[in-house]
Amino acid sequence: MSKIPLHPSNRWVKCLSSHGNIRGVAIHATELVAGMAKLHGIRGVPAACLGEAVIGALLIASNSKGQERVNLNIQATGPVRQALVDAHPDGTARGYVITSETAPEATLGTWGEGMLSVLRTKTESQNQPYIGTVPLITGHLAKDLSFYWVQSEQIPSAVGISVKLDAEGGIESASGFLVQAMPGATSEEVRLIESQINHLNTLAGEFGGGSEPTKLLARIFSDSSFMLLEERQLGFSCSCSRERVTRALTLVGVDELESMLSEDGGASVRCDFCNESYTFEKDQLVELIRSSRQR
Ligand SMILES: [Zn+2]
Q: What predicted TM-score, i.e. pTM, was given to this entire model?
């Protein structure tokens, strides 16, 4: 069961230029991001950072194939110390941010300095996960993600992310796009798209309020024709369950479980991604310790 209702306008639209050399995806996810900020009780800059990370992870997941899971992990020196977002090619995502406890120094961009890691895991095979890490260079997530694609996956890419806050610090809009040159793209084609994207300099104003990803793609691709490849509903999904939490607790070790029992008379575990609480009463914890001992 999802904690955030699906909103029909929240989706990604993928396209390919008619020559097949440039691919693009545009995302509108205002209600999804607003719902996640509300779920975590955050406003202002942390909410905007969460929104940017969610759009970024969905952009990455949108060009994953099959059963791949994408984890975007950003560690930064700005008001947000860490952002963790999981996204899937089925258009679902979950995530949270950890804010800095000390007042951050003036930072480069919103995020400041730090590292950006992308972990891609095939969920159905034993293949080694792929991990790519780049430093945050500009502190602007869209620019640093462009750098990630060039540096880590050798794909010339342009990324735009727009998250706007309302007067109360809530999410007013959240959207983004990714345009990539495929092998075989001519420098002419790449230049055309680049100049078009540079025209979208008032990115937020240009598409922030709009809820139509296809229109954004039409602006980016301008006069070049393109074909729509996929349109997908986006939503929130968390994979936590009592079973998973139980398994995680057994890994904590008998000593730790014993001290939970004697100090708290039970255990309570909260999922950072969705805030679901799993409570283990005294007798349940005793049973868990007993079965852990038998391993
Ligand atoms: Zn959860």
A: 0.92
pLDDT digits (tens, 9 = 90+) for 26-63: 999 999 999 999 999 999 999 999 999 999 999 999 98
- Domain borders along the chain are 11-236, 242-293
In sequence order, what E strands does 6-125 have?
11-17, 22-28, 68-76, 80-87, 92-99, 114-122
Residue range 68-83, pLDDT digits in tens: 899 999 999 999 999 9
User: How many Å lie between the centroid of ligand 1 and the Cα of residue 53?
Assistant: 18
CA of 272 to the centre of ligand 1 (A): 7
**How far apart are the C-alpha atoms of 74 and 274, rounded to whole Å?**
19
Query: Ligand 1 mean position to 216 CA, how many Å?
Result: 33
Give the CATH H-level superfamily of domain 242-293.
HSP33 redox switch-like (3.90.1280.10)
Options 3.40.50.1000, 3.40.30.10, 3.60.15.10, 3.55.30.10; CATH of 11-236: 3.55.30.10
Distance 238 CA to ligand 1 centre (A): 5
